[in-house]
TrEMBL record:
The keyword Oxidoreductase does not apply. SUPFAM superfamilies: Putative DNA-binding domain. Residues 5-75 form the HTH merR-type domain. SMART domains: HTH_MERR. It comes from the Bacteria. InterPro entries: DNA-bd_dom_put_sf (IPR009061), MerR-type_HTH_dom (IPR000551), MerR_fam (IPR047057). This is HTH merR-type domain-containing protein. GO terms for molecular function: DNA binding; DNA-binding transcription factor activity. Keywords: DNA-binding, Repressor, Transcription, Transcription regulation.
Length: 280
C-alpha cells in the first residue's frame, strides 16, 4: 500500500506547497496524512487527498482564514469540500466585486490625471467636457468654509461608502447648485456604484437618493450632470485658504459649481490646488 502513497516531498513538489505548510494543515486537523511511518515519522498522502490540498490553496488565495477550515471537518475527520467550496464561491464573488470597483477607481484616476495633464499650463479660463459623475455627498449648512466641518463630513462620506455599495474614487471636494436653485453647497466624494439598478433608481428620483445615515451627517447619492464646464485653478498654501477662495469666487458665478482637488506630482505638500468648474 505504501507504494501507492505520496511522500510529503512529492506532494510539496506536485502542489507547490512547502512541507512546513503541509504539517501546519495537519496541526489544524484539515489535512491528516493517510499514513505516518511509526519509526521514521515520515508522512504519506493518498492521491485522493490532493483535491483537499487544492481546496486549501484556493481558500488561502481567496483570503479565507485557515483556522476557520477546521469548522468544516466532519466526525470522520474528512473535510466537507462541497460546503467549503460554496463559501469559497461566495468569497470569490465578493473579491470579484471589489476588483471591479477597484478597477473603476484606477481608471477614474488615470482618466482625470490625463485630462489635468492636458490642461496644465494652458490659458485660463478653459472649457472642458465632464462626464456624468456619481457622488456621495453631505449637505453643507455652514455660512462659510470651515475646515473642521469639511474634514468631519468627508470622513463620514468614506465611512458610508461600503453600506451604499460604492467605491470612493480619487476626486473629492465641494459642489454647489445653480444660484437659481438656491446655491446650496455640499461636500462630495466621487464614487463608483456597482449596482446598475441602484444607479437607475438615482436617476428616477430626480438625481439623488438618501442612504443609511451616518451619525452627525445626512448622506446622499447623486449625479453631477455631464456637460461643458468653464474651469479655472485656485492655488493656495493649505486647503482651508483654497476653499475660502472658492467660496469668494463662487459669489460671482451663477451656474452649478464643482470644486475638486487637483493632484499634481509637482505640487508642494503644503500647497493645495482646486479646480473650480462652472457648468455652461
Amino acid at each position: 500500500m505504501k507504494h501507492e502513497l505520496l511522500s510529503i516531498g512529492e506532494v510539496s513538489r506536485m502542489k507547490g506547497v512547502s512541507p512546513k505548510s503541509l504539517r501546519y494543515y495537519e496541526q489544524l486537523g484539515i489535512l491528516t496524512p493517510a499514513h505516518v511511518d511509526p519509526q521514521s515519522g515520515y508522512r504519506y498522502y493518498a492521491m485522493n487527498q490532493m483535491i483537499v490540498v487544492d481546496v486549501i490553496v484556493t481558500c488561502i488565495e481567496l483570503g479565507i482564514p485557515l483556522k476557520s477550515l477546521a469548522g468544516y471537518v466532519g466526525e470522520s475527520g474528512a473535510l466537507d469540500i462541497a460546503s467549503l467550496l460554496a463559501q469559497g464561491r461566495t468569497k470569490a464573488l465578493e473579491n470579484l466585486r471589489r476588483a471591479r470597483l477597484s478597477l473603476a477607481q484606477i481608471d477614474g484616476y488615470l482618466e482625470e490625471a490625463n485630462e489635468q495633464e492636458r490642461l496644465r499650463g494652458g490659458a485660463e479660463p478653459y472649457l472642458r467636457s465632464v462626464a456624468n459623475r456619481c457622488i456621495l455627498y453631505a449637505p453643507w449648512t455652514e455660512p462659510g468654509f470651515d475646515a473642521k466641518r469639511y474634514l468631519f463630513l468627508t470622513t463620514r462620506l468614506y465611512e458610508s461608502a461600503e453600506s451604499a455599495g460604492a467605491m470612493p474614487l480619487y476626486q473629492w471636494g465641494m459642489a454647489r447648485s445653480p444660484r437659481a436653485e438656491g446655491a446650496r453647497w455640499c461636500v462630495f466624494v466621487e464614487a463608483a456604484i456597482e449596482d446598475d439598478a441602484f444607479a437607475e433608481k438615482i436617476s428616477a428620483q430626480g438625481g439623488r437618493t438618501g442612504i443609511r445615515p451616518i451619525e452627525g451627517a445626512d448622506i446622499f447619492i447623486a449625479r453631477i450632470p455631464a456637460g461643458a464646464y468653464r474651469g479655472t485653478r485656485i492655488r493656495e498654501a493649505g486647503f482651508e485658504p483654497c476653499f475660502r477662495s472658492v467660496f469668494e469666487q463662487a459669489e460671482r458665478l451663477e451656474g452649478a459649481i464643482v470644486a475638486a482637488k487637483v493632484w499634481e506630482a509637482e505640487i508642494h505638500p503644503a500647497d493645495y490646488v482646486v479646480e473650480l468648474l462652472e457648468r455652461q
